[in-house]
Automatic annotation (TrEMBL):
Record-annotated Furin-like cysteine-rich domain positions: 43-169
Native organism: Myripristis murdjan
Lineage of producing organism: Eukaryota, Metazoa, Chordata, Craniata, Vertebrata
EC number of the protein: 2.7.10.1
UniProt membrane topology term: Single-pass type I membrane protein
Keyword Repressor attached: no
Protein name: receptor protein-tyrosine kinase
Chief localisation class: membrane
GO biological process: one example: cell surface receptor protein tyrosine kinase signaling pathway
Length: 483
């Protein structure tokens, strides 16, 4: 032991326990007070204390959340805030105040206004700058399957609905004039295109005629265009301009997920251009619901049908006058004679192509983007109800399917006609609450009675119960109370 340590050791008044091993102090000629230390007091705790205590009595045990000794029995008495799990404003706790707590009045898990987040081993009410909240933790970046959003002034990670948003550069610049084999992979997993998308003969001719000798660009495989199925929006200042297309594709269904074309900066007043594609028989833009600005130019597509059924005015936004040019495509009479008409389940708003999944809107109901005659109100699985927009929505999984009557009146667990398993207040549940936090440093335990309703356990039950009385507590809890 060094001389400097010999000077400090007598002042180590917080040194009160050794969890494992013995003591050896030799060859310290300047050490004083060593013979007066009663080492047995430091190394021995009552068996009930699990090696952590501030005295030898069974009543002198440290709080279970203390990691390295204590000066008293409470969770605030742990030495230098050395906690087994987390430090919450000086108290050692098994977890930080959770983001969701059980509301005894509404029988639901609700947002905890006093929630804190794990920042290392410390509980904080707000994550530090440049950190975001992921569940109950502060993290430097969201995981790959989540996206960053702001809620109430706090940046949070939320699960993505499908692919996480990804903004990609469009075409039109000198170095990137059109989609071709040299840039097609840059559109993988893109959800938003910032700029135009041009498909010009100078690029897609390579599909038909081989390599582009002028720019030495190899042919573009038509299958590569499938990357555009993830695109939801063409934003920024530009347009969708299709003047060349692979002959093996009869529609533009690779853009079946596209919902919006903003078109703030137009090409000769147009934001959607489709022209001179002889193999095109339908547009297939089944999700397109908004053209924010600009008009439509669809011309010289000799086999194109269905476009004449679309009520384009329903897609336009703003007050700018629109002057569409839709001409020199297959005559409407020929399309009708060839049965190239909208599905009977489509409304009068028109369609993008054949089948009930190409309707702009439905005559009756819709399920997952496809028009249907009826929802699964009384038969079929899963049972459904109709939302205000005519969409078939699945009942909550805790609803018991009913025969010859509706199963639910809405999407919630409190809107079931009959519960499939149990009921907690007005909500159908798969199991009764067990050990859920109530936001008051207490845990809620309930049991299911004969009617399948969740009822509170006795207040002294700490592990759950089978009935309302103290004797109905699970064995470990009852033994702890009886001691």
């Amino acid at each position: 032991m060094s001389p400097s340590l010999s000077e400090r050791l007598p002042h180590s008044h917080l040194f009160t326990e050794i969890l494992e091993g013995g003591v050896q102090i030799i060859s310290n000629k300047y050490l004083s007070y060593g013979p007066w230390v009663f080492w047995q007091d430091i190394t021995v705790c009552a068996p009930q204390c699990n090696g952590r205590c501030f005295g030898t009595s069974p009543r002198d045990c440290c709080h279970i959340e203390c990691a390295a000794g204590c000066k008293g029995p409470l969770d605030v008495d742990c030495f230098v805030s050395a906690c087994r799990h987390f430090n919450d404003s000086g108290s050692c706790v098994p977890q930080c105040p959770q983001t969701l707590i059980y509301n005894k009045q509404t029988f639901q898990m609700e947002t905890n206004p006093n929630a804190k987040y794990q920042y290392g081993s410390i509980c904080v009410s707000q994550c530090p700058t440049h950190f975001v909240v992921d569940g109950s933790s502060c993290v430097s970046a969201c995981p790959r399957d989540k996206t960053e959003v702001e809620r109430g002034g706090q940046k949070q990670c939320e699960p993505c609905s499908g692919l996480c948003p990804k903004v990609c550069e469009g075409t039109g610049a000198e170095h990137r004039q059109t989609v071709d084999s040299s840039n097609i992979d840059s559109f993988i997993n893109c959800t938003t295109i910032q700029g135009s998308l041009h498909f010009l003969p100078m690029s897609l001719n390579t599909v038909r005629h081989g390599q582009d000798d002028f720019k030495n660009i190899p042919p573009l495989d038509a299958k590569k265009l499938e990357v555009f199925r993830t695109v939801r929006e063409i934003t920024g200042l530009y347009i969708l301009n299709i003047q060349s297309w692979p002959k093996e594709l009869s529609d533009l269904s690779v853009f079946s997920g596209l919902t919006t074309i903003q078109g703030r900066s137009l090409f000769k007043r147009f934001s959607l251009i489709v022209m001179r594609i002889p193999t095109l028989t339908s547009l297939g833009l089944r999700s397109l619901r908004e053209i924010s600005d600009g008009s439509v130019y669809i011309s010289q597509n000799p086999n194109l049908c269905y476009h004449h059924t679309v009520r384009w005015a329903q897609l336009f936004r703003g007050t700018r006058a629109r002057n569409n040019e839709i001409k020199d495509n297959r005559p409407q009479a020929e399309c009708v004679a060839d049965s190239r008409v909208c599905d009977p389940l489509c409304s009068d708003s028109g369609c993008w192509g054949p089948g009930p999944d190409q309707c702009l809107s439905c005559r009756n109901y819709s399920r997952d983007g496809t028009c249907v005659a009826s929802c699964n109100f009384y038969t079929g699985n899963p049972r459904e109800f109709s939302g205000p927009d005519g969409k078939c929505v699945v009942c909550h999984p805790e609803c018991q399917p009913q025969d010859e009557r509706v199963t639910c009146t809405g999407p919630g667990a409190d809107e079931c006609v009959v519960c499939a398993k149990l009921k907690d207040g007005p909500h159908c549940v798969s199991s009764c609450p067990s050990g859920v936090n109530d936001g008051q440093r207490g845990l809620i335990f309930k049991y299911a009675n004969k009617e399948g309703h969740c009822k509170p356990c006795h207040i002294n039950c700490t592990q759950g119960c089978t009935g309302p009385g103290l004797r109905d507590c699970f064995e470990t809890a009852r033994l702890a109370v009886s001691r």
